[in-house]
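This protein record is not my work; I was only asked to verify it. Take the sequence as given and treat only the tokens as open to question. I have pasted the whole thing underneath without changing anything:
***
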Amino acid sequence: MKIAKRCILILLLVSLFFGVYNYPKLNILAGYSAKNTASSVFLGGRTLAFTNATDNNFSPVDFATDTVDFGNKVASSSAFGLLSRKAVYREGVGAVLTLNSSDENSNYLVPKRTKADNITPFPFGNAPQKDTVFNNIDYVNLHKTVNSIFGENKTRAVLVLYKDQLIAEKYADGFDKDARILGWSMTKSLMSTVFGVLQYQNKINIADRAPIDSWQKDARKNITIHNLLQMNSGLEWDENYNEISDATKMLFLERDMTKMQEEKPLTGITNASWNYSSGTSNLLSKILRKQFLSHQAYLDFWYADFIDKIGMNSMVVETDLSGNYVASSYAWATARDWAKFGLLYLHNGRWNGEQLFTKDWVSYATTPTPTSNGTYGAQFWLNAGKPFKDVPKSMYFADGYQGQRVYVLPDQDLVVVRFGLSGFEENMFLKGIIESIKN
């Protein structure tokens, strides 16, 4: 009997130690699963079974048990039965993790949207585009290249625009031209573009010091908006998704995701310490919010002056519990609408005869950040340092987790979009597309 009691006591102590030691990890694990499930089911329009079998099927997220309450639009995830998290879906601003029970029914603002243009042919509208056959395109090689990254590479969508014409489009089972897909960190490039639009409208100057009140009594007061856009502020930040880090705590434990980067000290030299930081992108979202007289105006501007202006009507940029756009990570749209974003840059900010930002902004966004080795601009990734050796140096792209991409190739008049659940051989893929087009 004594031996049995001792064994039970040891098991209880081990369980207690496991629970206490791993509680933060379990919190983030369940948080990721709940948030991803809510967004996938209610915003992406997928089933719980599909989401669990594809998006949530990697370790340790696959240890969480997910359920969906369709009536209240809530997803719940339990980590080993020790801890549960909930995410609630809010029409117009997406899903958000709750921190207490009152968050499930809290009030929130929704951006005003404009109706989709279903008369103008794609890509400048959503009506069918007339088939155009280019004599200089090797379509056999093009389709072979596109097909090569499906299957084992877990690609979900590929779309290629050449001279404003759709020349290739392919989807995996369960996806089509109307399926919203999460862009992850491609959202950073959207947020940067909002600054470009404001700059063109003379409503902001990115050379100004960042308007952060808490920085005004220390050296951080010298950090400019430009430094933040280039992720070259010198601020401390840990961007690690395999451990508990600044990035994971921000995304899965914070009510206001703009605060974590604001509270970090300087650990490097401003303008000489490039450090990739999702916290910086969300801090920039806060700076954008401060440019408007009301929260509603901040929410509306992203769509009225940019997103809906170019017909990205499927797009939803999700907000945190404090109503800030999560500029680091959470924009959803169809592959076709993401392609419109690339096309806007290919045309140097001009859309259907209207200028949203200038060619100077494109040059700025694609200028290498000091100490980034030619790989990063203003929330865009670059090929200036030739990480893709068979692709022109002028190519630049929006980049998201697991290989979400919008590539802009100005010299080739190309926009290439790829979505999936894993990385892939980007250099060979882009090389194959480029070589399919004869000069």
Remarks:
- DSSP finds twelve helices and 15 strands in the chain.
- The mean pLDDT is 94.
- The first helix runs from residue 2 to 43.
- The first strand starts at residue 64 and ends at 69.
